[in-house]
Amino acid sequence: MKRISTLIFVAVLSILVVDVSAQSVTKKRVGAFIEDGNVVIEEATTTLVVNLTVECERVVVGPYARYAQKYLGVRAPLVDRTQYRIVAADVAVADNLNSVTSDVPAQSVVDDHLGGVDSFAKLLPDKIAMGEMTADEAAEEAAERIFELRRTRLDLITGEFGEGVYGAGLESALREIDKLEHQLIELFFGKHYICQTKHIIKLPVEADNTAPIIARFSPEEGLLASDNLAGNIVMLNIAPSDMVYPASDVKGRVEYRYANNATVTVSVGQEVLVSRVLPIYELGATVMFLTPTK
Length: 294
Hints:
294 residues; alpha+beta; six-stranded antiparallel β-sheet; 37% strand
């Protein structure tokens, strides 16, 4: 009896090698069994992790923007603008749901701005006469101060400013001039900054839902909740492949779940962000094998 059981087991394994040798197959033992003296109950499930990197570009118009062409010879942005883009995307299988990073966004600001993103430094030109200054007059005064700072910088570098400004003193003076000039230029050209936010979406796979909506995206508002109709659909699509699994009618005690090598695609609207071939257990097959008995 032992010899017959062993032959059946070997024959089944031979079928397995022939059927799946040409394919990369991921399998996992499932059900209840004893391992290292302990009772183990295993299930084969798949959790996908979608990583999206969203970039936000923002332009804040300066208070003297409409005078930039007149006094500095260069046009400045005249309209505030905020635009979002998905600049990177990836999808993978999470081996352990507990090991996946939290989906709390992590921000990284690229540009540094004096006085904050929305506020401008209080650098309106000092009054030289009684009465209110018009915006045109204030812009002209600010432009004159920019040119004055540039002349002072040149004098310091060439040594025309006087004697005794060397080494660390010169570096400190140049840094202060750069800071003041930057603050004045922002009054004309505004503020421009870029930041990137990483979003992690965890999604347990459901066999009866292979095209779930995982989020929505708007160029004006960024990544939105899946039920927010203000943005385009961000969809995850799972397309199973044609695979041959080992067939067995034997009612044995060894049970394996074979994953399907499915094509997993993440898209926003008609644009494909990323596509990967990943093992999906929910779309595979469960096979029973007879083991030899002692």
